[in-house]
Automatic annotation (TrEMBL):
InterPro entries in UniProt: Aldolase_TIM, DapA-like
Family annotation (Pfam families): DHDPS
Organism: Paenibacillus chondroitinus
Residue spans crossing the bilayer: none
Presence of keyword Glycoprotein: no
Keywords tagged on the record: Lyase
Family assignment from sequence similarity: Belongs to the DapA family.
Tree of life domain: Bacteria
Name of the protein described by the UniProt record: Dihydrodipicolinate synthase family protein
Length: 308
């Protein structure tokens, strides 16, 4: 049995976008405002500095600042998971220690990127992070970007440790998700990564999800989760399909994060542009962003009207 409160990690956790000012520097006030917006939306938590959070495009100091802004605003209300993955183990360890010092609820990390690493190397990397704090640790498995295939064997070995409470799986195989759940056991969390498969992942064993597009439509994912929890599968599926059409549109822009940030800006949350090499939305695409935002807001109002 894990001694951590696993329930605080079950549910909808937004992979939060980073906030920059006009010159591209971390914007602390904007980060606090965005975190507040999310806390008021009713989600369970925030995942800071991951893929959507552009942690890999920031310096160690910038990553600390972004996390500090979020924790100071919502650390008492939401579960805050600090993604500390970095190419160098020592940077990850520094970030993990900092996260613990300022009150993060868990740390998480991808395998060290860039080098093609062996499983023992990835294991040692993760172990150094785990050993550096008393915080629970969530593995971040995203082979399509890291190139590292996490085996069920290594997952099982990691999951046997008290501090390793779960895995966020962004691979698109729900079979793999189910195998990880089976290997980890009941008190090991499996968190769904691909937002397009939230309901599929949940149905086959995921305890919740961490996703980037949740950040522009938290109400819709909360609704899918509520429908699922109440056994209303047809309704849950209907909304997953609506969400998927929206995600397909989001993915049609030069960068997904640029599109999501442009939508947030329309709602009064200016988080700046994504960092290069991620592309912002072009001026000529703004009418399409506007229309997409209206559609999402319309669905959010509909869901609110339906209650549950
Ligand atoms: C690479 C990436 O950003 N993955 C996110 C997390 O796993 C997802 O939330 C996607 O943004 C989402 O599923 C859209 O494809
Ligand atoms: C974790 C995740 O979904 C992301 O960082 O985008």
């Amino acid at each position: 049995m894990k001694s951590y409160n696993l329930d605080s990690f079950r549910g909808i956790i937004i992979a939060m976008y980073s906030c920059y000012d006009v010159s591209g520097e971390i914007d602390l006030a904007a980060a606090r405002r965005l975190a507040r917006y999310y806390a008021d939306s009713g989600v369970k938590g925030l995942y800071v500095g991951g893929s959507s959070g552009e942690g890999m495009l920031q310096s160690v100091i910038e990553r600390k600042l972004m996390l500090e802004a979020v924790i100071s605003e919502v650390g008492d209300e939401l579960t805050v998971i600090a993604h500390v993955g970095a190419p160098a183990t020592r940077d990850s360890v520094e970030l993990a220690i900092h996260a613990e010092t300022i009150g993060a609820h868990a740390v998480s990390a991808v395998p060290a990127i860039y080098y093609r690493l062996s499983a023992p190397s990835v294991e040692a990397h993760w172990q150094a992070i785990i050993d550096s704090t008393d915080l629970p640790f969530i593995i971040y498995h995203i082979p399509q970007t890291t190139g590292f295939q996490l085996s069920v064997g290594l997952l099982s070995k990691m999951a046997a440790q008290e501090k390793v409470i779960g895995v966020k799986i962004s691979a698109e195989s729900t079979f793999e998700l189910q195998q990880f759940k089976a290997a980890g056991g009941e008190d090991f969390l499996v968190l769904n990564g691909p937002d397009e498969q939230y309901l599929a992942g949940r149905s086959i064993g995921a305890d919740g999800g961490i996703g980037g597009t949740y950040g522009v439509m938290p109400e819709l994912f909360l609704h899918i989760e509520n429908c699922y929890a109440q056994g209303k599968m047809a309704e849950a599926l209907k909304w997953q399909f609506i969400v998927n059409a929206l995600i397909v549109e989001l993915l049609s822009f030069p960068s997904l994060y640029g599109a999501c940030k442009a939508i947030l800006k329309l709602r009064g949350y200016d988080t700046g542009e994504p960092r290069m090499p991620l592309l912002p939305v072009a001026e000529t695409d703004l009418p399409r962003i506007h229309a997409l935002n209206e559609r999402i807001l319309g669905f959010a109002a509909q869901v609110k009207g339906e209650g549950l």
